[in-house]
Input
Amino acid sequence: MMQEAFLHHVWQFQKFSSLSLVSTQAEPIQVLKVGYHNTHAGADFLEAHIQIGVVEWIGSVEIHLKSSDWEQHTHQHDQSYGNVILHVVWENDREVYRHDGTIMPTLVVKDLIDVRLLQSYSAFMARPTQILCQGQFEEVPFIRKLGMLDKALLLRLEKKAHHIMELFAKCNQDWEDVAYRLLAKNFGFVVNAEPFMRLAENLPLKCIHKHRDNLFQIEAMVFGVAGLLEVIEENDDYQRSLKQEFKFLSAKYQLKPVIESHEWKFLRMRPANFPTVRLAQWAALIGKNANLFSLMIYFKDTQTIESLFSINTSPYWENHYRFGKSTETRVKSFGKSSFENILINTVVPLMAGYGRYKNEPILVDKAIAMLEEIKPEKNHILAIWQELHLPIKNAADSQGALEWMKSFCHTKRCLSCEVGLFLLR
Output
C-alpha cells in the first residue's frame, strides 16, 4: 500500500522522471528547487521554486495520496495553505481549489516513478521484523547511526518538553507544582504512576508546605488522600494514629481519599518498591525541600541533586514495607538506580521544558550532559539494539535508542530515519 511518507521521499530526492513534467491542467512544470521538508504544521515543503507554464513561483508544495485529500483535510478553508504553488499526488481523483477559489496546479507522479524503486520500497516495508533494517544494519556507516541516535534523543527531549508545557498549563503556570506532580508520577514508576499522579493533583502542595516541619502530618495527608487509611490493619497503632491525624487535617483543608486501596499495585515487585514505601519516601522528600523545582534546575552537579534524595523516612518505615506487616530486614533507603530513574524521567524533562519556556537552549545542553553521566538503562528494547552492535554507553544513548524504536521502527517511518534513507537511497 502506498504511503504518503514515500511520496515525501520521492519529491525531496526527485526520485522520478522529471523530464517533460505536465500538470493536470496541461501546463509544463519545471522543478527549480524542491524546498525544505517541513515536519511541523503547514504545507509539507516550504520555499520551493517551481516554474509552471511561463511563470516562476516561490512557495509551498503539499503532498497527498489522492488529490481529494486536499478537501478531506479542509486545506481549501485554511489561509496558511494559500501559498501552496503545487499539489503533488499519487492519484488525481478530483480537481481542487485554494481558499480564494483559484484552481490548484497538480502533478501526478504515479506513472513517473521507476517500478524498481517501488518494488524495493514495498519489499523493505513488508519485512516481518521489529526493526526492518536489522539484516542490513551493519552495512550502514557508523557515523549515520550515531547521527540518528542524536536525532532521536533530541526528538525525545522535544516531546518531553511539550509534555512539561502541557502540565505547566494544568498547574496554572506554577513551576513548583509541575515539579511536585512530575516527581510524584515518577516515584510510582510505571506501574503506580497513575495513582501517584492523582494523589499529587488532589493534595495541594501548599498543604504540604504548611506542615514542612512535621513529617507525621505530611504522611497522614499523603496516605489519607491515597486511600490507604480506610481499613486499619490489626494491631497497627501507627496507621491508626495517621488516620486520626488525617481526620483532623482533612477537615481543615477539605481533603478526602481519591484512590481505592486496590488501585495500588504490589504484585511482581520487590518490597523496596512497594507503593507504601515509595509514598513514605515521597512524603519525606517533599517535606524536606520547599523549592524542589529551583533546586533541581539550578544545581551545580548531580551530587548536589543526589543530596536532595538522601532522605530519612519516619522510623516506622525502617522495618515495614506496608501497614500491619513488620520485617526484620531493614528497609532500604532510596537507592542509586531509583535516583538515576528520577534524573532521567523528572529532572531532565523539567530542564528541557523550562529551557523551551525560557528560550534557553543551554538548559537542554545541560540535560544532555546529565544523561551522558548516567549509566544506560536496561530493558528488552535496548537489548535488541545491542545485538545490532549499536553503541549504548550512557543514558543519553539509551534514551535516544528507545525513541528511535518507538517513533521510527515501530511506526515504520524508515524514510524519516537516517539509516532507512541510506538503505533506500
